[in-house]
Amino acid sequence: MEKVIGALWAAPDEDRAAFNARLRSELPEALTQAGAAHIRLNLRDEAVAPAEGLIQRWQAPQQDAVVQFWMPSANARFRGAVDSALAAVSHRFALWLVAESTIIPNAAHPPLAGERTWGWSQASFISFRPDMAYEDALAFWHGHHTRIAIETQANFEYVQNLIVRPLTDGAPAYDAFVEECFSAEAMSEPAAFFDAVGKPEKLKANLDAMMDSCGRFIDFARIDIIPTSQFVI
User: Fold this and answer.
1) pTM higher than 0.85 for the full model?
2) Minimal CB count within 10 Å: which of 9, 75, 94, 97?
3) Which helix H or strand E contains 67, and what residues bound it?
4) What is the rounded end-to-end Cα distance, in angstroms, of the chain?
């Protein structure tokens, strides 16, 4: 089995709520019929509006939704039905083959099939710094930053997806996709995000440690970070 990450765009004149409704009602069944499994949708909806200030943008227009799924082979020869299903519900899409690493599984707020997962999900498409060798950036991410992300944040799910290769022409040149889940309060309260409620000194220390670590391997000019509602099918 291989894991695929997909970014989906709505038509320029389409209401996002209508786009989200179509994805939820049509895409899981279509992907299942096409041979995909373990489907997850990350949708930008009204529930995550309070996290608007956390958005970071490279793509214009920025992706409207993310879909994650597994399939026996992501080879283009065997992906035709999947691509057709995605094309039927979106204005355009991009796909990447990834290697998943579950750092923190969601044991605190297990998702219910088809329902919105508790809290919210930060979906991050990231690129490594161009002045670093790829191997050095990867080693820093896994060997240093992963620990910082665990220790400084109140994330109850943390999944790293290393991009192996793009699967579609024109897919943005990211190096990884990261999904982290937080409480609803963390959308607008930094202290809730950085596990420091009522502790201003800890908030500053955790924020400083996170920003320093990110800056040592991430290219901030080539990232897209979006708040989403998570739906596990």
Assistant:
1) yes
2) 75
3) strand 65-71
4) 17
